[in-house]
Amino acid sequence: MSDELIRETPPPYQAGALSNFRVGVLGWAVPGHLRDFPWRHTRDPYRLLLSELMLRRTQARQVAPTNQNFFQRWPDLESFLQADTEALGQVLLPLGLQWRIQNILELRQSLRNLGQIPRDYQGLLGLPGVGDYVASAVLCFSQQEARPLIDTNTVRLIGRYFGLQVHQGTRRLKSFRQLAASLVPQDTASASVYHYGLLDLAATICRPTRPDCSECPLSSECQTLKMEGPPSTSPERKT
Ligand code: SF4
Questions:
Q1: If DSSP codes are grouped into helix, strand and coil, which group holds residue 82?
Q2: Which atom from ligand 1 is nearest to the alpha carbon of 216?
Q3: Helix (H) or strand (E) segment spanning residue 188
Q4: In the predicted model, what is the mean pLDDT of residues 46-71?
Q5: Residue partners of 211: CB distance under 8 A and separation at least 6
Q6: Disulfide check for 157: which of 115, 177, 179, 206 has CB 3.0–4.6 Å away?
Q7: Shortest CA distance to 145 belongs to which of 173, 116, 121?
Q8: Which residues have C-beta within 8 Å of that of residue 98, sequence separation ≥ 6?
Q9: What is the widest separation between alpha-carbon atoms in the chain?
Q10: How many A from CA of 39 to the centre of ligand 1?
Q11: Percent of the chain with pLDDT over 90
Q12: Which CATH class is domain 3-34+147-237?
């Protein structure tokens, strides 16, 4: 379906709709709701970068034990740069995906050349295997930069709330990216809490199939729930 046929972004949103979403996510993002993972206890860009690469196409619960093993053996950038290649591959093996191991080895070579983790978006994007989501996540969780984290899950949740029909290309649309960015709290202290809340709401409540709308803190203003009732499938699968 062409982009023109898809209701990507309705007319400009009222500030209240943006604020209701933000406040709803932040209010829900408390310890009893948020999931606890090792990478949520650090602001070290090295650990955050490697953790994000481990999380690509892999369930967070599956990543956690490997993540802990990895950082027990190579707790900082210096030890990672000197790590034995075969040992790296063995520790990462439980995660599967040979291309990921290769990617991490290529990343190590780039970091050897640079001598440090870049601290800005363009610098991070220049690293092998690092795209918009990973670069934004590293900056958000290490430096509290107020950047949107846009992946399949956050596109689904935002799309449902605002009544958008989303598709695989939605995350690259300028209009959607502007909407996602306008939802991020601008006080930097709240940016990472907001994103933990958004990621966990999408994973545990606004699931791809059978979302638990009765438990959702956003239900009173959710356009999809209002117009169509609880969704039965991921919006990306409707088209
Ligand atoms: S009310 Fe339901 S569809 Fe809407 S955001 Fe919440 S869980 Fe998702």
A1: coil
A2: 6
A3: helix 188-204
A4: 96
A5: 160, 205, 230, 231
A6: 206
A7: 121
A8: none
A9: 56
A10: 27
A11: 82
A12: mainly alpha
